[in-house]
Input
Amino acid sequence: MIEFHLNSRSGLSPYQQLVQQVRHALRLGLLREGDRLPTVKDVARQMAVNPNTVLKAYRELEHDGLVAARPGVGTFVTRTLADDTLAAQGPLRKDLRRWLAKARLAGLDDESIEALFVSTFRSTAGEDVA
Amino acid sequence: MIWLTWRQFRTQAAVMSAAVAALAALLAVTGPHLADLYRTAGSSLVDQVSSSDQTLYYTGLLVVLAVPAVIGMFWGAPLISRELETGTNCLAWNQGVTRTRWLAVKLGVGAVAAMTAAGLTSLAVSWWSSPIDRAVDGGGATDTYFARLDPVAFAARGVVPMAHAAFAFVLGVALGLVIRRTLPAMAATLALYAAVQIAVPIWIRPHLAAADRTTVPIAPDGAPISIQDGAKQIVAHLEDVPGAWVTSQQTLDAAGQPAAVPSSFADCLRTEAGPPTLQQVDRCVADLGALGYQQQVTYQPAGNFWSLQWAETGLYLGLALALTGFCAWWIRRRVT
Amino acid sequence: MSAVLRARGLGKRYKKRWALQNCDLEVPAGRVVGLVGPNGAGKSTLLKLACGMLTPTAGTIEVCGGRPAAGVEQLAKVGFVAQDTPVYAALSVADHLDFGKRLSPGWDDAEARDRIRRLGLDPKQRAGKLSGGQRAQLALTLGIAKRPELLILDEPVAALDPLARREFMQDLMEAVAEHELSIVLSSHLVSDVERTCDYVIVVVDSQVQVAGDIDDLVAGHYRLTGPRRDMDALPAGQHVITASHTDRQTTLVVRTDTAVHDPSWTVDPLGLEDIVLAYMARPADAVRDTRPALEVVR
Output
């Protein structure tokens, strides 16, 4: 079973962190189809987090079709994310390597590269949200 | 709520009961002997009381006088101020008890306990002292013992100690409620209670029952007379009305009008050196009497003891009720 | 949605000083509400008004559909854990449970005893000898076991060490999950509020600065950085919370319902802590102008 933890420095709200941790676990194969997620009460107690937050995270996962709630029994994983993206990851990584080499050739040091990546990532993410 | 009040209160109640029981036991052992003595000696008992019984007599007086003050300070004042100080009142007020009921139960339980403690103490002491009291009222010499109507003994006999205790308790509660801190509330309770206990005998008690008035002649062989304030004041002693409580005196002139003691009296008493001789005093007193001066004495006769007791009980219980009303108003309007 | 707490023009004055004024709130039921603000801002006053320990000087307040502390029934609906969690020092832990059982109509004795057992408290222990954390837990047990609709906690963890604070919050959150319980708690620790609450009320200088669903607030506030400019140039629908300028740069914290399209701004999302700090930092006279737009109530 998955164990959650909150990082107050992540900049993400607690519920987003929960969603992210489940997705991450699904991606890495730590959670598989049929696994049961901890109950809302257990998560609320263990992390001292608002149960509404846990509920909201579980509802979002359900909406995404990753888990299903069975009343009175618990919330179960219905789909895993592992295989969907694994195939795409290889080529993407290659692209990214090529891009990094280009950036270094252009004279950017590690810090500048990271800043450029993060700010670009943020601005595109912001557009998506907007 | 009664359970909680009792649970918080039981230590104090136990201490008080133990003290009352100890006193009662001591008095029960020594009392019958005193009663026997009265049966054989009558009013001359006052000369035959042993020194240990004399100590007990004064101890009893002091205890009954102190019980209401102690109750006000140690039961009344902390009752609410301590809860306000520690914040525990929130606990009760948010556990399904309205604050009015909270106050009512605390006041009720406390007042009943206070009246019981003071009542039992007074009963024991009054019973024990009754042979002496009867001897004094029957004309025994009064320089050692107080008449029951004397302000010192009056508050330590009969039913008024109960009313005093109820009043002192509610006074303590009210001051604790307003001051909100235990120690200052205790001090204020003691001060205010003492002030009331001094004010009532001086200004109020003399008027609680119809007083008797008598005019005594000023003569060497009349009622004993004290000369005070540089011979400007005369005080007559009513020896033929035993147990009476003299509440006021007034010198009257030949026309029967209130008047000051004439300056001729002081002139008559003047000496070259030292105090005037007994003969000189007698002569001056006789001269004053011959001028038609008389002494009017207002007093409460011993027979008024119970009507004064009930009237004062009513007065103090009324004050306690008024303070209770004030507490109820204050706790609803003024307490956080 | 029914409101668990509704205030209209609520105010409380002590002698000359207003501890709270012009307070309008509508807090939906079933939420865990965090009340944040600097010390002395009026948090305790608002909570005491809500549980009926204080009566308002102005306006009205309604809690669980009734006037606070109006009677036994109303008292049973609202639990209150006061600041520093007072308990009767001379009474034992078991006495406290007895006391709750006798006084509270809806008392859940099994739950209370179970909680005390899980906390590892000795029922015979005198409450005056408990540690701060244990005392807080005992007070919380009294608050939860009376089964209120709304539990109000005034700085419940302020005096506790981090471990005790964590345990207290764990217990509180478990209780929220178990019973359908609304919570209003005050804290000056925004990190605690972010974790445990889904609704926040910011009180500064005796005024409610903002109140709303935390996710909505986080989604609706941005930090804009860009070349120096006048604030009049902002489009309608964007409200400036704070503004700071250097000779070249302007930094704004804005609340907006729509996306910021102006490409000259660098737009950063804000965490709850930044939003709360922005409201705390802004000048008090700014409250009136922007108040209507700040009511984020769903």
